[in-house]
Amino acid sequence: MAHIGDLIAEMLAQYGVEYVFGMPGGQTTALHDGISRRTDRIRHILMRDERNAAYAADAYARLTGKPGICDVTVGPGANLLPAGFLEALNASIPMIGIIGELPLDWLTLKEKGIASQGFDQLSFFKTCSKEAYLVPSVTALPEMIRTAFRVATAPRPGPVALIIPHDIFDAEWDEDVLKITVDDRSQKIPYLRSCAPEAQIREAATLIAKAKRPALVCGGGVHGSDATAVVTEFADKLGGLVVTSLSGKGAVPETRDYAAGVLNPLGSKAAIDLIKEADLVIWCGSKVSQNTGMNWTLPMSEQATITIDLDPLEHGRTFRPTVAMLGDVRETVAALSKALPKLPARREWAARIAEVKSACDADKQAEMTSDLVPVQPPRVMNEIAKRLAEDDIMVSDASFAAGWISGYIPARKPGRQFLFARGQGGLGYSVPAAIGAAAVRPDARIVTVAGDGAFSYTIGELATQAQYNQKIVNVVINNGKLGWIQLWQELYFNNVQSAVLETQSVKPGYAGAAQALGLLGIYVESPDDIGPALDRAFAYDGPSVVEVRIDDRATPIHSFKRRLREKADTPFARPGTVYKLRDWKISPDL
């Protein structure tokens, strides 16, 4: 006799889900049994930590547009999901968490774990999900699964928690009584598309035609709308500056003359400098967060603005746009592009973009070819970039890794080939996200970059990479410290020492740990050895770790670089100094 685990597995398969990422428990074993009967259509990938299941599902969703599915058991399994759920919620990534629960008639005993592992899971997930549901009966379950897919994929996408009691999971499924139907519209994002009204399109087109120095800022919403081809065509026609957020990297090819890189304190100096000179800024699928908005100093008061977003709450959140265009990015940009008159060449603006980019590129080239020891991270990124094939995927961890990737590895074609943990910016994203990416793209090479601090968070998932023999190259840039925090403390708190990850006698070896877990492990200290080490890793039939010892003073943050130069003569901060919020230009958790 089939059980409800079979029903859930069958519905997931009919929705086109190929992989479920998670950790089984007694309360959810029926789901795993159901999946095991359908391995020709759907498979389960066993993670070492439930938190990482959400990160793997997140990467799967970013690359496919389908909701990433993760499963956890009640209690200690469930309480590890919020980090990944919040990443997906803030980054607008569709996800469904299938979460075990106590039997229905035990729910009054959940407080204080009187019933083992019990707690108020529904209230808990309400705080970190787009929506959370507790399934009340077997009869209600199919419709609630359909609702979970619809809510996860509908504007604005996000994670949905589906909490299923143990007795419902284990109940018998009478296929003649409980029929399965799925809604193919909610198999992937966007669930529905809309377009901004014609009056707004005409108004925006007029504003663009009048601008002398237009700029386009592309956020993650461009990828969420599968709009990179349309946006690139629009950018070609615009004749202005184009920059992206970290999540928007790849919205246009960064090989174009007008592309100046990532707008972020971690990103491109050319982007930061040039955006201030624009007289019109078009924010396309961007929520104008603290970091893309450069601590909300952008847009400047004298700049005209256009916002293009499917979420009505994003228009006017931090500034009042000159023209607010409510609609799906792909549909709205296509309509706007069609409505544009013949635009002027804007040669002066193009020349200025080229001038600033050229000056910045000269400095970058020196960093990328540096023979200094300890190794400079841009040299590592340069060697990675040389070896990336067209369909390979880069996965960044949080902190400095995001800056090194965004600034020194270009997006050569439009599309989502760079995954950044920017919803929450939490450490530990890259290794588990690579597992999800490798499941989706088994023929591509997945390359991760993480500092030693971030890599330490999820080192156990290397065993998962090895178990599934995934083609992943994990690059660890090891400076023996939490680099961001160390420099923050030095610059603003006169060198408080609480970010050191090693001692003279104890230095964790990440390549050695990888070797012990079944991966190829390579340790590098010399710049000349980086290329050969990466060649071995890229040629290896399985996962690898390349650990590179880097300069512990290296930072991609331009203001940090400036402060380090100034510090010898004029320290920025002294013990006991108190700063107001407006004095802090960069978040320590960026």
Automatic annotation (TrEMBL):
One Gene Ontology cellular component annotation held by this UniProt entry: acetolactate synthase complex
Domain Thiamine pyrophosphate enzyme N-terminal TPP-binding: 4-120
Cofactor(s) named in the record: thiamine diphosphate
Protein name according to UniProt: Acetolactate synthase-1/2/3 large subunit
Transferase among keywords: yes
Xref: Gene3D superfamilies: 3.40.50.970, TPP-binding domain (3.40.50.1220)
Enzyme class: transferase
GO biological process, one term: L-valine biosynthetic process
All residue ranges annotated as the Thiamine pyrophosphate enzyme central domain in the record: 201-336
Enzyme Commission no: 2.2.1.6
Entry-linked SUPFAM superfamilies: DHS-like NAD/FAD-binding domain, Thiamin diphosphate-binding fold (THDP-binding)
Similarity-based family: Belongs to the TPP enzyme family.
Family annotation (PANTHER family): ACETOLACTATE SYNTHASE CATALYTIC SUBUNIT, MITOCHONDRIAL, THIAMINE PYROPHOSPHATE ENZYMES
Location of the Thiamine pyrophosphate enzyme TPP-binding domain: 402-548
Signal peptide (from-to): none
Molecular function, one GO term: thiamine pyrophosphate binding
Keywords: Thiamine pyrophosphate, Transferase
Species whose genome carries this gene: Allorhizobium borbori
InterPro entries: DHS-like_NAD/FAD-binding_dom, THDP-binding, Thiamin_PyroP_enz_cen_dom, Thiamin_PyroP_enz_TPP-bd_dom, TPP-bd_CS, TPP_enz, TPP_enzyme_TPP-bd
CDD domains: TPP_enzymes (cd00568), TPP_PYR_POX_like (cd07035)
Superkingdom of the organism of origin: Bacteria
